[in-house]
Design a protein that fits this description.
transmembrane helix; DUF6653
């Protein structure tokens, strides 16, 4: 892929690997736990892992995996412009303050709000993932009428 940018080759293509997506998703509760426990070493490891994650996995062989389509949908949404999907923007508008709430509860060592916030953040993330995969499927179908008609 000679015309691919560095971001394409070293981030997006590799991040589309399902193992990259799932390991990043499970990194979030570990991040929250590191903040809750005030464990700087664990926090540093989580941040380093999250930063290096896309480099650890090869690009996927195809776009059949649900999580691959999630990442491709995220990329397509960004390429189309963030205003191109109000549903996607709504998930970001909901998820960002929820993550702030969760991390703040963890920093204050408030167990119940931390656990509830973590669970809610993961649920919103998975719903957002579903939305992004659908966005990708719709966009692909509109660009190529012969494309697989996933719903």
């Amino acid at each position: 892929m000679p015309d691919a940018t560095l971001a394409d080759r070293y981030f997006w293509e590799r991040h589309a690997n399902p193992r990259s997506v799932w390991t990043l998703l499970v990194t979030y509760p570990v991040l929250v736990a590191a903040v809750y426990r005030r464990d700087r070493r664990l926090l540093a490891c989580v941040v380093a892992f999250a930063a290096l994650n896309p480099l650890l996995f090869p690009p996927p062989e195809d776009a059949d995996a649900w999580t691959t389509r999630v990442v491709l949908g995220e990329r397509a949404w960004m390429d189309d412009g963030l205003r191109s999907s109000s549903a996607n923007a709504a998930f970001v508008a909901l998820g960002a303050p929820l993550n702030v709430f969760t991390l703040r509860a963890a920093a204050k060592r408030r167990l119940l709000p931390t656990v509830a916030g973590t669970a809610a953040s993961l649920a919103v993330s998975l719903l957002f993932f579903r939305q992004l995969a659908r966005y990708y499927d719709r966009r692909t179908a509109s660009l190529d009428p012969a494309a697989d008609g996933r719903k």
